[in-house]
Specification:
Blueprint (H helix, E strand, L loop, with lengths): L1 H9 L6 H32 L3 H4 L3 E3 L2 E3 L1 H7 L1 H12 L4 H17 L4 H19 L6 H41 L1 H17 L4 H8 L3 H21 L1 H13 L7 H6 L5 H17 L19 H16 L7 H28 L11
Length: about 350
């Protein structure tokens, strides 16, 4: 056993929740951002501003036409897998081999491909690391093992993992349509908390394909955390803290939350309020890329996702036009309500003595 542990340590193979559930998952979200999400944004900008170079076909592969954004979107599987491999400290031959693994697992996983990529890329990465530089023909063995394990698991697991993820995502979306108030609260609070925790809410939403009304609730929860923390900590962190949390990430407050968990009450209660307002009052839907549901105001990606969903719905004929109510709902849910409710709740907690000056200092 000690010999095996020494081997794992030498190969930097760490079987832990942090390595796989935080590092790998967070990296996967970055891979999605740099492919699927950026591709979606490019397509939306090109369509809305009539930019020819962004809307015209730049490549035709197997009779499928691709725009610039389309090419970026098509590479989401490889991008996720390589990002995961980077987080797991894979050597070059393993890392480059994951391009094939990511493409296979994402394609075979269907709409639930991101979840398949997460599982398959982790195992293929560790298998590749285990054999890396163990033979004199490393340039052959390492890619063969990494790709072989990845392709085999993709064929075996990816379809089932993809279906399971989509069924769970569909169940959440169906339940939200059926019970918009209750599910608005639950989805908003859970996804919002995931955004602040050192895990990736974006990757979770992408893996589950969380869109529609449930996606709107997820956006509301993420905005409540980010804008809520940004505004209520403004007296202590100034404009730097406002920007870094408001359009960066509320995860910056994680250290303070560990020291005093009560500072998390105001943004979380805010999410419980704005979630059902989004689902019941404004019927705010996130019909863009599912990864946008878990981004909140980070780079305004959540808002761009909602807007691109409106554009897609209009193109498909399921929405007549973007109304004033749509814009009012998006602005209130994303910015105004979190900026008002969270600081008010925080003041109440301060008066109760639960939060002290300096508790929110970054």
């Amino acid at each position: 056993m000690s010999t095996f542990k020494a081997f794992l340590k030498r190969k930097d193979i760490e079987i832990s929740l942090k390595r796989y559930g935080i590092d790998a998952l967070g990296a996967m979200a970055q891979g999605l951002f740099c492919s699927l999400l950026i591709g979606t944004i490019i397509n939306t900008v090109g369509t809305q501003f009539h930019i020819g170079i962004l809307t015209r076909t730049v490549a035709t592969i197997a009779e499928h036409e691709y725009t610039v954004g389309g090419l970026a979107t098509a590479m989401s599987g490889p991008a996720m897998a390589v990002a995961i491999g980077s987080a797991l400290h894979c050597p070059p031959l393993v890392l480059f081999s994951l391009i094939t693994v990511g493409f296979a697992s994402n394609a075979l996983g269907g709409a639930g491909g991101p979840l398949a990529v997460l599982f398959v890329a982790i195992i293929a990465s560790e298998a590749g690391k285990a054999v890396s530089k163990e033979t004199r023909v490393d340039i052959l063995v390492t890619p063969l093992v990494t790709i072989g394990v990845g392709i085999a698991l993709s064929a075996w697991w990816a379809p089932a993992l993809g279906r399971a993820a989509m069924k769970l995502g569909s169940l959440i979306m169906w339940a939200t349509e059926l019970q918009p108030f209750l599910m608005g609260v639950l989805v908003s609070v859970i996804v919002g908390m995931a955004l602040t925790l050192p895990i990736s809410s974006a990757a979770i939403c992408a893996a589950l394909g969380l869109t529609g009304l449930a996606g709107g609730a997820a956006v509301a929860g993420c905005c409540a955390q980010m804008v809520g923390f940004a505004v209520m900590s403004f007296p202590e962190n100034g404009f730097g803290g406002l920007i870094s949390q408001g359009i960066g990430t509320s995860m910056l407050q994680m250290g303070n939350i560990v020291r005093n968990p009560r500072i998390w009450i105001a943004p979380t209660v805010t999410a419980a309020i704005t979630g059902p307002i989004a689902t019941c009052l404004f019927r705010m839907r996130m019909d863009g890329a599912a990864v946008s549901s878990g981004m909140g105001t980070c780079g305004l990606v959540g808002q761009i996702g909602v807007y691109s969903g409106w554009v897609n719905d209009i193109a498909e004929g399921t929405k007549a036009a973007i109304t004033a109510s749509d814009w009012i709902g998006l602005i209130l849910i994303s910015f105004v309500l979190p900026a008002v409710i969270a600081p008010l709740l925080n003041q109440i907690l301060k008066k109760a003595g639960w939060i002290k000056p300096g508790d929110l200092k970054l």
